[in-house]
Amino acid sequence: MSTTDASPTPENRVVGSDRVLAILSLLAAQPAGASLDELVRKSGHPKATVHRGLAALHRAGFARKLDRGRYILGDEFLRLAFTHHAARPEHVRVLPLLQQLAARFGETAHYAVLEDDDVIYRAKVDPPTGAARLTSTVGGRNPAHSTAVGKMLLAYRLYDIHDVHEWIGGRTLEKKTATTPTTAAEIDRRLREARELGYCLDDQETDPGVNCIAFPVFLTSPDVPSGAVSVSALAYRTPLADLVAAAEEIRSIVETTTGATAPDAP
Per residue in 2-58, pLDDT tens? Predict the structure, then answer.
């Protein structure tokens, strides 16, 4: 066999695929489009390589050529991305966020949704270390008024004390601990604080010795939360003041990981 044989090897094919994917990533970062020369500068690859990569993406419908030689992501790529995004269950989509929060704070992270007067836990990640674990379970329920995730979600539904009175109706709300808010005035105050701060606290209101901070998550709508995530901590290990001090860091993790920024307070 000739030593000058130029037949492509598996290694060469992988490298070529990597370059095409790199060009695809560059296009995704340029919503207004980019020219061939711009992509060459940003990628550091030879012009011929970038041109071949764009041609491959164009054939697959993953890139589209505009006037004046500019390229943007193609409709076929967007169709696949949105179809996959819409079909993926919420608890699967939020799992990387919970894993990051649990590892960062060494406490349990939850994702919960509001159903009637309760919250339902759709996902839970325990900390990677530490012997103590919370007893919450995926599929378990808690009253919305006693949990940080519940009050955070109620804050987007009950905008004033009249709404709170209607939500309570003729019920007597369960006082799970000494700090559980059970009156319309108490709940209205907590909901107003949650809207102003962008997060909600649970100061041992569901279980003695457990406190919590929760943030809304916008997975399906830019202005209506699909659910809320929380860091639920053993008070002796992570005091509530420590969670409050980390609020902006948690908010940044939530927004960066989900790619969604919370809207202005309703």
Answer: 334 444 444 344 347 788 888 888 888 888 888 888 888 888 888 888 888 888 898
> What is the model's pTM?
0.67
Q: Distances in Å between the alpha carbon of 68 and those of 35, 38, 53, 65, 179? A: 8, 13, 19, 9, 65
Structure tokens at 126: 């325990």
Beta bridge partners of 110: 124, 230
Look-up of token digits 């990533």: 25
Long-range contacts of 115-119 (CB under 8 A, 24+ apart): 115/141, 117/143, 117/144, 117/145, 117/167, 117/171, 118/142, 118/143, 118/144, 118/150, 119/143, 119/144, 119/147, 119/149, 119/150, 119/153, 119/228
| Cα four-point dihedral sign 149, 180, 137, 250 | positive
Domain ranges of the chain: 10-86, 89-258
- Tell me the pLDDT tens digit for each residue of 215-264: 999 988 888 899 999 999 999 999 999 999 999 999 999 999 888 787 77
Q: Which fold has domain 89-258?
A: Beta-Lactamase (3.30.450)
Classify domain 10-86 at the CATH class level: mainly alpha
